[in-house]
């Protein structure tokens, strides 16, 4: 892959934050002023404008937010490239990342939003004493305001960490030279995904996690499966041994060891982008971490001001921000009837194999003392999987499994976890069932194509149905069969 003379980042940045852009003359008043042009802000703005509202959108950096620029799409581009290319080249992989980002940029561009009727203002948005949003000397008066400023990587106060000039998700995708070795702090979704990317690119990867396992918020089985895959790929795991200090540019010191690396990548959580906005002037309350406090209808302590996305919640996923934005439009422009406290929000870690979950985990159910039943199917039991040749044990393990938890004595789905190839795709019908208040019995009645991996859900539905065959029901069937004895 080669594109002589093409700088895809320059193309993308010119669309998302044009160097020659002049802010428009503001209207006298807007129905909605949106601060932040990440997923929540973009959907709020263009959705409201599509309904005929007068909308202003403020962005201080680049349109598209983390997801496009330094999050979902860059990481998934690298994961896909390194998985499907033999002996992937570092420069070509990052060139592919930049090409993908540039290809998506028109969808989130300033031009697209101005063409849709949104007044786009580039600059820092701050509140004044009247609760209006100011961009420099420009005052934007809005009937309603939406704060959608997102979040950024948190860098904890580990001695020497900040001095090591660590990479975060905001800088790692801008690398132009391959590091010889990389220490990744945090084995959550981001840490595990990037560990797999860089080890495939020939980088020595040391992955540190203070918990006893990778993906500590997932099930024990899911964590073990991903840990096996990471180790098989060449990642060195350092689990249950907190980092105490960083010296130089990448010497990691834990309780038990010292590991030297060229660079450090921090993947230890997120912090909201809420400082410097004068939220106190607008009467908007934040919690001790700086996250905006909002109710189930996304209203802040100032009922004229709403908030959505990563600046409001610890459930920081693009699809969650999307759902919140749709509720925000309803509540800010019409009757405030849309709630977000009952949303069914799945999540997926895009390692190989993938791990996708929705609802409550087994640990959560046990901690809450909830009575539940478990149904499980391994994908190597499916005929579709049996037809695919696997060359090694890692690929065999990646075939994966699905586990679903239901309320005791009922088919109400409380949670589910899927591990395996395309786990995020395979989880989708379970999310649909949960959203529509349907249980495993609905899956049992559904016809799935044969042979496909989606048959796993039919297997789970059959397992639930078999569980209903109590001794009492079995006796009833026996009596019935005795009444209708076949005759020769």
What does this entry look like structurally?
The protein has three domains: 8-153 and 271-333, 3-Layer(bba) Sandwich (FAD/NAD(P)-binding domain); 162-268, FAD/NAD(P)-binding domain (3-Layer(bba) Sandwich), CATH 3.50.50.60; 353-471, 2-Layer Sandwich (Enolase-like, domain 1), CATH 3.30.390. Strands 3-2-1-7-17 form a five-stranded parallel beta sheet. It is built from 16 helices and 22 strands. By secondary structure, it is α/β, with parallel strands linked by helices. The protein is globular. The protein has helices at 8-16, 39-50, 65-69, 72-84, 90-104, 110-115, 189-200, 220-233, 318-333, 362-368, 383-386, 393-397, 423-435, 440-445, 455-467, 471-483; strands at 30-35, 55-59, 118-122, 125-127, 133-135, 138-140, 142-147, 151-153, 181-185, 204-209, 236-239, 243-247, 251-254, 258-260, 263-266, 270-272, 305-307, 347-349, 354-359, 372-378, 401-407, 413-420. It starts with 7 loop residues before the first helix and ends in a 5-residue tail after the last helix. Helices cover 33% and strands 21% of the residues. Helix 4 (72-84) packs across helix 5.
Q: In percent, how helical is the residue content?
A: 25-40%
What's the average pLDDT?
93
Spatial ordering of strands, largest sheet: 3-2-1-7-17
CATH topology type of the largest domain: FAD/NAD(P)-binding domain
Strand content: 15-25%
* Major pleated sheet: 5 strands, parallel
Secondary structure tally: strands = 22
Tally of structural domains: 3
The CATH architecture of the largest domain can be named as: 3-Layer(bba) Sandwich
Count of helical regions: 16
The N- to C-terminal Cα distance equals 74 Å
Low-pLDDT residue spans: none
Q: What does the overall shape look like? A: globular
Name the CATH superfamily classification of the largest domain. FAD/NAD(P)-binding domain
If you compute it from the alpha carbons, what radius of gyration comes out, rounded to the nearest whole angstrom?
A: 25 Å
CATH class of the largest domain: Alpha Beta
């Amino acid at each position: 892959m080669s594109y002589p003379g093409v700088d895809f980042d320059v193309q993308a940045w010119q669309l998302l934050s044009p160097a020659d852009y002049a802010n428009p003359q503001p209207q006298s008043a807007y129905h909605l002023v949106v601060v932040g042009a990440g997923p929540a802000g973009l959907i709020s703005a263009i959705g409201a404008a599509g309904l005929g509202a007068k909308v202003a959108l403020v962005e201080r950096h680049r349109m598209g937010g983390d997801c496009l620029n330094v999050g979902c799409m860059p990481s998934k581009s690298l994961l896909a490239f390194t998985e499907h290319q033999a002996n992937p080249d570092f420069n070509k992989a990052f060139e592919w990342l930049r090409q993908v980002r540039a290809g998506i940029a028109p969808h989130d561009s300033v031009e697209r939003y101005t063409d849709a009727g949104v007044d786009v203002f580039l600059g820092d948005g701050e509140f004044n004493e009247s609760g209006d949003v100011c961009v420099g000397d420009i005052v934007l008066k809005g009937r309603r305001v939406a704060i959608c400023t997102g979040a950024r990587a948190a860098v904890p106060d580990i001695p020497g960490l900040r001095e090591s000039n660590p990479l975060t998700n905001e800088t790692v995708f801008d690398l132009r030279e391959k590091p010889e070795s990389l220490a990744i702090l945090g084995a959550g979704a981001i840490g595990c995904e990037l560990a797999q990317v860089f080890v495939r690119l020939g980088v020595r990867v040391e992955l540190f996690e203070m918990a006893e396992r990778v993906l500590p918020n997932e099930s024990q089985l899911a964590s073990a499966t991903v840990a096996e895959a990471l180790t098989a790929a060449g990642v060195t795991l350092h689990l249950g041994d907190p980092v105490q200090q960083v010296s130089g540019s990448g010497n990691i010191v834990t309780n038990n060891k010292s590991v030297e690396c060229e660079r450090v990548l921090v993947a230890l959580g997120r912090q909201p982008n809420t400082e410097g906005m004068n939220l106190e002037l607008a009467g908007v309350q934040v919690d001790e971490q700086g996250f905006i406090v909002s109710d189930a209808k996304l209203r802040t302590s100032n009922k004229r001001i709403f908030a959505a996305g990563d600046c409001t919640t610890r459930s920081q996923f693009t699809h969650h921000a999307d759902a919140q934005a749709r509720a925000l439009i309803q509540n800010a422009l019409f009757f405030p009837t849309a709630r977000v406290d009952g949303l069914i929000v799945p999540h997926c870690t895009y390692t190989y194999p993938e791990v996708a979950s929705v609802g409550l985990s087994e640990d959560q159910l046990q901690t809450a003392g909830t009575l539940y039943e478990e149904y499980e199917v391994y994908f190597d039991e499916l005929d579709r999987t049996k037809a695919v040749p696997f060359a090694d044990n890692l690929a065999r393990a990646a075939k994966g499994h699905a586990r679903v938890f239901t309320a005791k004595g009922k088919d109400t789905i409380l949670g589910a976890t899927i591990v395996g190839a395309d786990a995020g795709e395979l989880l989708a019908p379970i999310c649909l069932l949960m959203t529509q208040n349907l249980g495993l019995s609905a899956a049992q009645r559904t016809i799935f194509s044969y042979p496909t991996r989606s048959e796993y859900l039919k297997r789970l539905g059959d397992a639930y149905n078999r569980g209903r065959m109590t001794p009492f029901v079995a006796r009833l069937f026996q009596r019935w069969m005795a009444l209708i004895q076949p005759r020769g």
